[in-house]
Amino acid sequence: MPDSAVDDEPKVRVHRLAEQVADHIRGRIIRGDFADGDPLPKSEELIRRYPVSMPTFREAMRILEAEGLITVRRGRLGGAIVHRPSPANLGYNLGLVLAAQRAGIGDVAVALRHVEPACAALCAARRDRARTVVPRLRELHDEYLASIDDLPAVVGVSRRFHEALVSLCGNPPLIVLAGALEALWSSHEESWASRTEPHGVPLSKRQASGEVHGKILELIEAGEAEAVHQLVASHLATAQRNPKPASDPAIDLTLVRELMQPPGAAADS
């Protein structure tokens, strides 16, 4: 009806203006004008830059917050904190989709057994691997050996080693997609490690995994792409034991949300 169309016009206009403001701020975040964890300029400064009403500005902030690009803190110390897009963010959204399809954490493990070896092979094929890949993997391997007596700590380092095989592969689509899978798996395995008995994984098995990590590092350093692909695939087939599918099949999105949540994000005042 004509009357309702007239009544809806201001709302439509506000929404479009809010989207334009959100589009511009989003573009600045993606371009890197703001680093992860940086505060956005104060609302007063942003409104001077984007001359819109306060309701329109708040709608723009809600759009960006719903996308996970900012966290709005309210109160005396309020403001908006920037979160640059990351595989962990995608991991949460991927987890939502998989949960809706009744996929379990075991399905995530199977997917990683296919994509992570490919990432490791790409690491070995990088011409600049001695500068960009090997130092970080060696650092993590040394940290693994130093933490081997502490189960939660060594599991956390192990997960960072496997995540690094993805993040250092040099292929942006694989880094994002496989990184999202890694985020899902890491959240579950690290949660398991924090809840299990200190000797839930015997020291001998931790040492064996450390030896495999060392061999993976050697093969990548030598540029042996096919060999490292095979080794990572076989290693994952035996190492992905926790949480056990029979006892904990579901993807726990609470764990993923905690993994991707920035420190202090929930501390509204």
Overall description:
The protein has 269 residues and is mainly alpha-helical. The chain folds into 2 domains: 9-82, Winged helix-like DNA-binding domain superfamily/Winged helix DNA-binding domain (Arc Repressor Mutant, subunit A); 87-260, Four Helix Bundle (Hemerythrin (Met), subunit A) (Up-down Bundle). Helices cover 69% and strands 3% of the residues. The protein is built from 12 helices and 2 strands, in the order H-H-H-E-E-H-H-H-H-H-H-H-H-H. Strands 1-2 form a two-stranded antiparallel ribbon. Helix 5 (105-125) packs antiparallel against helix 11, helix 7 (134-146) packs antiparallel against helix 8 (151-167) and helix 10 (203-222) packs antiparallel against helix 11. It is elongated and about 65 Å long. It starts with a helix and ends in a 9-residue tail after the last helix. 30% of the residues are buried. Residues 1-6 and 262-269 have low confidence and may be disordered.
